[in-house]
Design goal:
Blueprint lengths: L4 E3 L6 E4 L6 E4 L7 E3 L6 E4 L6 H19 L3 E5 L2 E5 L1 H10 L3 H30 L7 H11 L5 H15 L4 E4 L1 H18 L3 H17 L7
Parallel strand pairs: 1-4
Antiparallel strand pairs: 2-3, 4-5, 6-7, 6-8
Helix pairs in contact: 1-3, 1-6, 2-3, 3-4, 3-5
Length: 223
């Protein structure tokens, strides 16, 4: 179905600030599949996704499984002068520490391992909360932090660095790619698909709807 683009008109009930120009405008009910644009600068505000979270939940769940596989199984096995060494995803980031570059090791570890792990498992928690229509206590704080930190995740950049390193390593060592490498490649693709299927605006709206139901039934789980 061709995606329709509509310009926000100041005539509805829901206020929303543009991420680019900070213009405050009213946004009403938007049909599924439509892309909402800012009435001032024309930047994309959000796309109205489907009412269910099954697709992003499936992607994020597979990301969580693949992330564990990529960390528990070796990414590659190196053989240099008869010496063999297996390297996991976490160890590949810590190699810079062994090379007396702790600052770079910290940056790589944070942006390529710890931050993606936080985003993946936080999104899994959030999507499960929405899927079961339960406003769990940590859902809203986690969504705030995921929205802020997600752009800093750089697993795709780390994958490109690994591929470049492999080209150089094969010239003077035997390199055997492990299960962890396959899992990591699929993880990067799956994570990109998961992020593209998630609209933060819709997640907030769904959480607000769940909170209204919880408040009406006397439950006080909303943060």
């Amino acid at each position: 179905m061709e995606i329709k683009k509509i310009i926000v008109q100041v005539k509805n009930d829901l206020l929303m600030a543009c991420h680019e120009c900070d213009a405050l405008q009213n946004v009403g009910d938007v049909a599924e599949g439509n892309v909402v644009l800012c009435s001032c600068c024309g930047q994309r505000l959000f796309k109205k996704s489907s009412t269910t979270t099954d697709k992003p939940l499936a992607f994020i769940l597979s990301c969580a499984i693949l992330f564990m596989l990529a960390n528990f199984y070796p990414v590659m096995q190196l053989t240099i002068a008869g010496i063999e060494r297996e390297v996991t995803l976490m160890q590949s980031a810590l190699i810079f520490y062994e090379l007396d570059n702790p600052a770079l090791a910290l940056v790589v570890l944070f942006s390529s391992v710890l931050l993606p792990a936080f985003c993946i498992f936080s999104l899994l928690y959030i999507l499960l909360s929405i899927h079961f229509k339960k406003s769990w206590r940590l859902t809203r704080p986690l969504l705030v932090w995921v929205s802020r930190l997600m752009p800093w995740g750089m697993m795709d950049v780390f994958l490109l660095a690994v591929l470049v390193a492999l080209v150089k390593l094969v010239s003077f060592s035997d390199v055997d790619l492990g299960i962890g490498f396959t899992a990591f490649v699929i993880l990067v693709l799956n994570y990109a698909a998961a992020i593209s299927s998630i609209e933060m605006h819709d997640l907030w709206n769904k959480l607000d709807s769940i909170c209204k139901i919880d408040n009406a039934t006397g439950q006080d789980a909303c943060g």
